[in-house]
Specification:
- It is built from twelve helices and no strands.
- It is mostly helical and about 200 residues long.
- The protein has a single domain, classed as Tetracycline Repressor, domain 2.
- About 20% of the residues are buried.
């Protein structure tokens, strides 16, 4: 796992193969297949290993919204640090022991924080998929430079007068980071779910 993670961190998903992994380990590719049947199995095992390390969090007696947010932020940071995990997450079944444990803990925390049992799975999946989608955006929009953001802001400010809203909000449109959007979205989702719960 350590060799596979190092290779993925360095070369990304596109540069990862059983042949390259065997080279890292100083062995023949055929020897790897005695342990894991193919490339996908290695990727699932890597995902399971990293998820288990990053999302280890037990519900406490005072579990609440803040603990849910903490779990979502941990997942967000993990996917931003290792963007290949978002792709693995969306293209393979995550049924390894650590992934199952992380899923169990997330559902425990949701239930302990007051999410009705009939909504717990939906809330878990909504926050999971929201986080994965933002992590995927981070790989593209998050890579914009200061110069690119400033150029976009200037473009918006110099639009003709029939775009008054865009011109007046040019700075916010161009300079708001994905991290800020992500945080706002998490708060909005949880506030909306809380309101739904109160309405009954």
């Amino acid at each position: 796992m350590a060799a596979a993670i190092e290779l993925l961190d360095r070369d990304g998903l596109e540069g990862f193969s059983m042949r390259h992994l065997a080279g890292e380990l100083g062995t023949a590719p055929g020897s790897l297949y005695r342990h894991l049947e193919n490339r996908e199995a290695v990727l699932v095992a890597v995902h399971d290993h990293l998820i288990g390390e990053a999302l280890e969090l037990s519900p406490s007696e005072d579990a609440g919204v803040e603990q849910v947010i903490d779990l979502v932020r941990r997942q967000w940071r993990l996917l931003c640090e290792r963007p290949y995990l978002a792709v693995i997450w969306t293209t393979t079944e995550q049924l390894g022991p650590r992934a199952l444990r992380a899923r169990e803990q997330a559902l425990d925390i949701a239930l302990a924080s007051g999410v009705p049992s009939g909504r717990a799975a939906e809330v878990y999946l909504l926050l999971l998929h929201y986080t994965i989608a933002f992590a995927a955006l981070q790989q593209t929009l998050g890579a914009r430079t200061v110069e690119e953001r400033n150029a976009t802001e200037t473009f918006f400010r110099e639009l003709p007068g029939d775009f008054p809203a865009v011109r007046s909000l040019a700075g916010d449109l161009a300079q708001t980071t994905l991290e800020q959007e992500f945080e706002l979205g998490v708060q909005a989702i949880l506030a909306g779910l809380a309101a739904m719960h109160e309405e009954g």
